[in-house]
């Protein structure tokens, strides 16, 4: 799968971000996207083929694998990367709208179309709230689907057509566990960065608005 579109999106967002926002882009690009492409994708590549049960009953391994892994970790991680990056498009589209508006009117309507102020500030705040919400939703989804953030060495399956309770073994559980912990840690870091940026912007523009009103009253 080509991730060039996501790389280009993150590069575009970086132009209009605050300092904290640029750190978020760096974390997503370096510690999530690159790790996914360079290493994690290969670890889960043959997870179904390497899932083994101590019985050769036709269909037993398939239903057991589907029971314990209804969605592949790596596919869910890929979906998470795409979903948490998508709200940033709102900011890119808003800046593009400002630039297009200036071209249509053939005059300077904004000091800088990429400045975070006015309507663009609202769009930026909405994108931060959406990114934070999606990160939390995916963490909860991971926890619910796999009964916690862990990869067991052995699972016991009694789903039909298995004739009795059978032992099934997951390939490379320790290695997968390390990457799963890394995934959870980077997701939590991104949540902290998003909340920090949200608090910073609200505080900054609240003070700015208060000072502006205070000056008007003095005048």
UniProtKB/TrEMBL annotation:
Q: What subunit structure does UniProt give? A: A connexon is composed of a hexamer of connexins.
Keyword Cell membrane part of the UniProt annotation: yes
Q: Which residues form the Connexin N-terminal domain?
A: 42-75
Q: Does the keyword Cell wall biogenesis/degradation apply?
A: no
* PROSITE patterns in alphabetical order: CONNEXINS_2
Bilayer-spanning residue ranges: 21-39, 77-97, 118-143, 177-203
Q: What molecular function does GO assign, one term?
A: gap junction channel activity
This chain's function reads:
One gap junction consists of a cluster of closely packed pairs of transmembrane channels, the connexons, through which materials of low MW diffuse from one cell to a neighboring cell.
The record's Gene Ontology cellular component field reads: connexin complex
The chain's coiled-coil residues are none
Membership in a protein family: Belongs to the connexin family.
Q: Where does the UniProt entry say this protein principally localizes? A: other
**Membrane topology listed for this record:** Multi-pass membrane protein
Q: Which UniProt keywords apply?
A: Cell junction, Cell membrane, Gap junction, Membrane, Transmembrane, Transmembrane helix
**Per its UniProt record, what InterPro entries does this chain match?**
Connexin, Connexin_CCC, Connexin_CS, Connexin_N, Connexin_N_sf
GO BP field: cell-cell signaling
Q: Which PANTHER family match?
A: CONNEXIN (PTHR11984), GAP JUNCTION BETA-7 PROTEIN (PTHR11984:SF26)
Connexin cysteine-rich domain residues are 134-201
Q: Which compartments is it annotated to reside in?
A: Cell junction, Gap junction; Cell membrane
- Annotated source species: Pteruthius melanotis
Write the protein's name. Gap junction protein
């Amino acid at each position: 799968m080509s991730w060039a579109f996501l790389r280009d999106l993150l590069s575009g967002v970086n132009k209009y971000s605050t300092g904290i926002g640029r750190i978020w882009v760096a974390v997503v690009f370096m510690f999530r996207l690159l790790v996914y492409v360079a290493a994690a994708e290969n670890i889960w590549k043959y997870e179904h083929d390497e899932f083994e049960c101590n019985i050769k009953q036709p269909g037993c391994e398939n239903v057991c694998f589907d029971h314990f892994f209804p969605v592949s970790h790596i596919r869910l991680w890929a979906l998470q990367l795409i979903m948490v990056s998508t709200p940033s498009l709102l900011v890119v589209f808003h800046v593009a709208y400002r630039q297009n508006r200036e071209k249509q009117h053939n005059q300077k309507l904004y000091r800088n179309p990429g400045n975070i102020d006015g309507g663009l500030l609202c769009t930026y705040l909405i994108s931060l709230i959406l990114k934070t919400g999606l990160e939390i939703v995916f963490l909860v989804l991971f926890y619910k689907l796999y009964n916690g953030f862990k990869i067991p060495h052995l699972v016991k399956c009694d789903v039909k057509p298995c004739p009795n309770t059978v032992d099934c073994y997951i390939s490379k559980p320790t290695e997968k566990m390390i990457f799963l912990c890394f995934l959870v840690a980077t997701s939590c870091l991104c949540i902290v960065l998003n909340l920090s940026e949200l608090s910073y912007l609200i505080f900054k523009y609240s003070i700015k608005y208060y000072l502006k009103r205070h000056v008007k009253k003095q005048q």
